[in-house]
Amino acid sequence: MSEELRKAIGGVRDEIDAIDNELLALLNRRASCAQRIGEIKAQHGEAGFVYRPEREAQILRRLQELNPGPLGNDNVSWLFRQVMSLCLSLEQPLSVAFLGPLGTFSESAAVRHFGHAARLLPQVSIDDVFREVEANHADFAVVPIENSTEGAIGRTLDLLLTTPLKICGEVVLRIHQHLLSNAPSLGEVRRVYSHAQSLAQCHEWLNRSLPGAQRIPVGSNAQAAQQAAAEPDAAAIAGDAAAERYALPKLAASIEDEPNNTTRFVVLGRHEAGISGRDKTSLVMSAPNRTGALSYLLAPFTDSGVSMTRLESRPARHTLWEYVFFVDIDGHRDEPAVQAALEELSRRAAYLKTLGSYPAAVF
């Protein structure tokens, strides 16, 4: 390296060091502000209300709007989620239940929403995830609710019917499925472990590339990675988190059949989220069993100018050949238009439960 080049780089590195010093001071100043907010909340009897999803969403959206680059908005969101996560942990570390073991897409969704400072509590089933929060053993739950190619997660919908928990956030996660194995080549793979949904999402790739391999569904992709790691002629379909955690090489990357394969997760807690300015409301309802009943139920949304973004039918568990309908609409339940639509809907529906209003996912 020439002396001229060394001096030029050295000058830029000195500038980086000075910026790092400023960043360190500012981050600690921000952390001190977070501690002061915790103290103020405690003085007013609200010490338990540490996490405000609407406030976090507003911060991330504002920073994305201000972002001049070269960092992309997704990088800015990731960075400031970690900062907020660390600051929240100074007030009170958040505990988050999710479908385990470690290495699942649910873990990735939990970390994406709450940051790395959250205390992660992997559970063996979606039922257990709900129970951890219902029993006050965890602050929040993160559960999958629908996949862009395989549709709704039935068990999550069933549990939402009866839980007292409220949806207070959502996470939209791009799903990249990889074939992980210690086998030296595809030709050596005799068994493929994965969650049933992931096997379905990679069905065509498996037909082309591993037509003779046995496909074995297991409880989660992380469990699949654990089993594949112990068997030299086995493979797992799982994501990057499982590959890293269980030290499994990628025999093939991004093998999902649909290039835009995405899973939506919901965040569940014991408290309602406030208005963030860009919100959704989820609800479940049933219609009287007569011609035109569903159209009659949906009319209040049109009349109030409220946009419906999702409609999913599900068999009612208590009555044969009866159905409930899961609906997502734009807006918060406390906004006048949504409030008017819900009031009219409550008069028309045989059954109505508002699952929660929450900030739309910030990417």
From TrEMBL:
One of its GO terms (cellular component) is cytoplasm. One of its GO terms (biological process) is chorismate metabolic process. The keyword ATP-binding does not apply. Residues 282-359 form the ACT domain. One of its GO terms (molecular function) is chorismate mutase activity. Coiled coil: none annotated. This is Bifunctional chorismate mutase/prephenate dehydratase. Gene3D superfamilies: 3.30.70.260, Chorismate mutase, Periplasmic binding protein-like II. Catalyzes the Claisen rearrangement of chorismate to prephenate and the decarboxylation/dehydration of prephenate to phenylpyruvate. Its EC number is 4.2.1.51, 5.4.99.5. NCBIfam families: CM_P2 (TIGR01807), PRK11898.1 (NF008865). CDD domains: ACT_CM-PDT (cd04905), PBP2_PDT_1 (cd13630). The record marks 263 as: Essential for prephenate dehydratase activity. Residues 95-270 form the Prephenate dehydratase domain. Pathway: Metabolic intermediate biosynthesis; prephenate biosynthesis; prephenate from chorismate: step 1/1; Amino-acid biosynthesis; L-phenylalanine biosynthesis; phenylpyruvate from prephenate: step 1/1. It is found in: Cytoplasm. Residues 3-95 form the Chorismate mutase domain. SMART domains: CM_2 (SM00830). Keywords: Amino-acid biosynthesis, Aromatic amino acid biosynthesis, Cytoplasm, Isomerase, Lyase, Multifunctional enzyme, Phenylalanine biosynthesis. It catalyses: prephenate + H(+) = 3-phenylpyruvate + CO2 + H2O; chorismate = prephenate. It comes from Rhodocyclus tenuis (Rhodospirillum tenue).
